[in-house]
Amino acid sequence: MKILPLSVPLFVILLSACTLGPDYIQPDIADTAAVRYQDGWQPMPAQSWKASGSWWRAFDDDTLSALVERSTRANQTLAQAEARFRAAEAQWRLSRGGLSPELEATLGATRSGGSGEIERSASEQYDARLQFSWAPDLWGRVRRGIEADEAGLQASAADLAAARLAIQVAVAGAYVNVRALDRQQEILNETMAAYDRSATLTRNQYEAGIVSCADVIQAETQRQSLRTEMYDLQAARAREQNALAALLGIAPAELSLEQQGERLPAVPVLPQSLPAVLIARRPDVVAAERQVVAANARIGVAQTAWLPDLSLDLWGGVQSGSFSGLFDAPARVWSVGPSLAQTLFDGGRRAATRDMAIAQYDEQAAFYRQTVLDSLRELEDALATLQILAEKTEQQDALLQLALENERVITNRYRAGQVSFLEVATAQNTTLSTRRVAVDIHAERLAATLQLAAIIGGGWDLDDPVIQSVTGE
Which segments cross the bilayer (predicted)? Predict the structure, then answer.
């Protein structure tokens, strides 16, 4: 009989160590160890997505770096993600509170009396009570809930990192577009100067009777067409700059980028050690995997609904007819005892809740697998694009040299009166088109590089010695 009082709390503690539900096993995913377009690349040890460095510094552009860093402080989409993370952290703390007992204090006052057939003089009653209650986590319901909310918190942290990376990539992309348009504008300015010289030459030759009036009209038409095209570039640049301002969290009127048509940001040298396994550090992949953990834990929460709930309550207090004598009153009351609650019939609601939790787990697992597949596809696309564009750049450079030489030869022949201005105009337009395509290809390479940065989770840590050896820093 003496052992019985000690055995009851011991039994409760042992039951509290039970945790229902399946333990988490990471779902099988596609093999990320091999990539078709990574010729000559060697894998490096996988790193956490939290270790992402300032990848944008690889583009060697101070203005770009300043804009990216500014966006992480003022972008409103990022502010929303940060608020969601704080909410997830609060939810996790709320779940952890379910393991702790509750202590409540109450102080009350009542006045009662009667009239009519039941005459009763008015009386006052004051009471103070202190109540202790605890619901042991017999079947692991609270612990599974904490596990689910902790995984949700980790997913929210990954979502925050994904939002930050998306903003950084978007800012860099808008900046590249602005600089590409600046370079296009510079090319048009240089071409306009050449057209002006051609128009002057044509008019001089016309006045000398060497060419016809049609050549003069052709030269003026070509120059006016180019002048009109410049307005399209100006409008496009204004739109890109406004989009960049929105990403920075400021009004368009507050941002003004000076034109820099001399060059575009350099295409960074890709680290030879970039592996496909870096997909594992992508924030969206991490978030998807953590959501699977949360869904798995909720299955355990649903399974505990079939088992009884135990709660232990203890309270004590005092009562008195006057407030001044409340704590000196001889009338003291108390209560102590356990209670056990069990749902006997619920019309299939518990089974439906369990089946829903299992279905949601299957959904999250499938979403995780698809996220990995999409990441692999995006990686292959970016690597293939970079590889092909690098080769295309070489061919475009060779084409540009031919176009320049052809323009020089045709212009000399025109000066000698051997050809009409139509051939000169054709040669000049070919050179202009070739130069502009070269700028477009360079911008496409930068865009593909930015896409690759997003695909691998912004994982170009410039402090990594392997990357330093490749980039020459």
Answer: none
Collapsing DSSP to helix, strand or coil, 266 comes out as coil
The pTM (predicted TM-score) of the whole model is 0.78
CA-based radius of gyration for the chain: 37
Q: How far apart are CA 234 and CA 149, in angstroms?
A: 50
Give me the residue label for tokens 């930015």.
450
| Average pLDDT score over the chain | 81
CATH code of the domain in which 261 resides: 1.20.1600.10
Which own/partner pairs from 240-248 qualify as long-range (CB within 8 Å, at least 24 positions apart)? Answer: 240/174, 240/177, 240/178, 240/181, 241/174, 241/178, 243/174, 244/67, 244/171, 244/174, 244/175, 244/178, 247/71, 247/75, 247/167, 247/170, 247/171, 247/174, 248/67, 248/70, 248/71, 248/74, 248/75, 248/171
What residue numbers bound the domain in which 199 lies? 16-95+138-306+354-471
Edge-to-edge strand ranges of the sheet holding 332-341: 102-114, 120-134, 309-320, 332-341
| 241 within 8 A of 181, measured Cβ to Cβ | no
Collapsing DSSP to helix, strand or coil, 55 comes out as: helix
Q: What DSSP letter does each residue of 283-316 carry, written as one string?
A: HHHHHHHHHHHHHHHHHHHHHGGGS-EEEEEEEE
Q: How many domains does the chain have?
A: 1
Q: Are 294 and 149 in contact (CB under 8 A)?
A: yes
What sign for the dihedral angle of Cα 170, 173, 179, 184?
A: negative
Amino acid at site 402: L
Q: Is 270 exposed, middle or buried (0-12, 13-18, 19+ CB in 10 A)?
A: buried
Within a domain: 88: yes
> Residue 173 is encoded by which pair of tokens?
């992309």
Q: Give, rounded to a whole angstrom, the gap between the first and last alpha carbons of the chain.
A: 79
Distance, CA of 401 to CA of 397 (rounded, Å): 6
Distance of CA 48 to the CA centre of its chain: 16
Residue 180 lies in a domain: yes
Which residue has tokens 């980790």?
A: 154
Is the pLDDT score of 448 beyond 70? yes
Q: DSSP for 7-41? A: HHHHHHHHHHT---SPPP-PPP----S--TT-TT-
The answer to the question of residue 349 being in a domain is no
Per-residue model confidence as pLDDT tens digits over 377-419: 888 888 888 889 989 999 999 999 999 999 999 999 988 888 8
DSSP assigned state of 445: H
Confidence of residue 467 (pLDDT cuts 50, 70, 90): very low
Q: What is the pLDDT of residue 9?
A: 52
414 part of a folded domain: yes
- Output the six-digit token pair for 52: 């992402």
| Bridge partners for 340 per DSSP | 310
| Both structure tokens of 267 | 């295409």
State the sign of the Cα–Cα–Cα–Cα dihedral 18, 19, 20, 25: negative
